[in-house]
Design goal:
alpha/beta; Rossmann fold; seven-stranded parallel beta sheet; 9 helices; 47% helix; 15% strand; oxidoreductase activity; NAD(P)-bd_dom_sf
Amino acid sequence: MAVVTGAGNGLGAVIAAHLHGIGHRVAVVDIDGAAAASVADGLDPAGESARAYGLDVTDRDAIEGLLAALLESWGGVHVLVNNAARTQATPLLEISSEELASVMAVNLGGTFAACQVFGKQMAAAGYGRIVNLGSLAGQNGGTATGGHYASSKGAVLAATKVFARELASAGVTVNAVSPGPLDLPVVRRIVGEDNVDRFAETIPVGRLGSPKFIAEIVALLASPGAASVTGACWDANGGLYVR
């Protein structure tokens, strides 16, 4: 059984659909409950293998409530995908303290709290897979996504290592995936639809990344066979960052 946050649209919806398609029961979680319901209904109108949950990841009590509900209805959670994030491309020197706190609360705070809450339950069960969505911005400082977003994603990568070390002996792996620019509406909106082709030319491979492929990476890291991979960050950035 898999939980995917920020799954009401964009990459989260693609990940939820892929996990459902390969046999996972999926909890589609999003702050926009209606968007989550639309995705879940598209996967399984009967609600037997896909259900929607409206939830703000900055609310730890709500995360604990979600876990309790899932344990009662589905008996356990084996996979957690922390995808929920806030992107706001404000010029660096114009970012207010309030905006910084808000972005960090969602991107880092939500991921951290979910790793704590679900990680503890997985450790008690002796098995679990947690996959955190990082970003190229968290590795190279970002360009168009905002300094607070880049900073929060760098912190997510550090948190991934911390939780991986803590939970490894309990059979729980914690990894990250760091995509570069993907062919998603949010990227096209930030870049500008008329500039997409020109922007793609700045990427070494000459194209935007595939959201479906990111979902496949997530599924691989979330599989039982990925037992020896933990604390890792898998890059998929078209060659924009090579290490």
